[in-house]
Amino acid sequence: MIENVYLAFLFSVLALSTSIEVTWAEMGFRLCSILMGIFSILFIILAIVFAGLNGLSELAVSLIVVFTFSYIIPCVLNCHRFKYLDMLKGIIYLIYMTPTYLNILPIYAISNTHDVTWSSNPHLKFDFTSDLKREKDLRYRNFRSRFLIVWVILNFLVGYGIVLVSEVEGVDIVTYIGIVVLGIIMFKVIL
Q1: Which of 58, 60, 101, 178 has fewest C-beta within 10 Å?
Q2: Rounded to whole angstroms, how far apart are CA atoms 100 and 37?
Q3: Which residues in the chain come in under a pLDDT of 70?
Q4: pLDDT by residue (tens digit) across 71-111?
Q5: What are the structural domain ranges in the chain?
Q6: Where are the alpha helices (DSSP H) in the chain?
Q7: What torsion do the CA atoms of 54, 58, 60, 66 make, to the nearest 10 degrees?
Q8: Cβ distance 87 to 70 under 8 Å?
Q9: In degrees rounded to 5, what are phi and psi of residue 163?
């Protein structure tokens, strides 16, 4: 059920990004952002409850320790100007807004690669004839459509591949993903 809710959010954002002007879709993006933020916090709470009820593995403990230290080390390095309440608010805000940063913004950006109205490129500001302008707009829209289709298919294949590998006996994909995440967090903490 959790995967289906997540996929419904992603499909909604994709539909809003490709079919409606941004001024009309803004309310939908905000609603998806709010619901995905609540979903993110709820998921973390449920993961903690699940881990508490089923016991913690060595990998889970390692991930929790590294994750905790990724917040503690910056606090220790800046203890002379540290504000605990601001840090707590920042952590909650980070967790709440992560789905927006990781899902909504990239989907919207990739879905609107054809929109060059914001450009500061002086060559794009020349007054083209209507035929040239239409041709350029059509080229950008075709590129966007092909790029978006390839991007969605690749994301689907990666997700489906992870599901298939996780169902194979003897292969613990969560361990491998956890190790990659642990490496990324350690990289951030050290550097």
Answers
A1: 58
A2: 7
A3: 59-60, 113-129, 170-171, 174
A4: 777 777 777 777 777 877 887 888 888 888 888 888 888 77
A5: 2-114+123-190
A6: 2-19, 22-54, 58-77, 84-99, 105-111, 130-167, 173-190
A7: 150
A8: no
A9: -65, -45
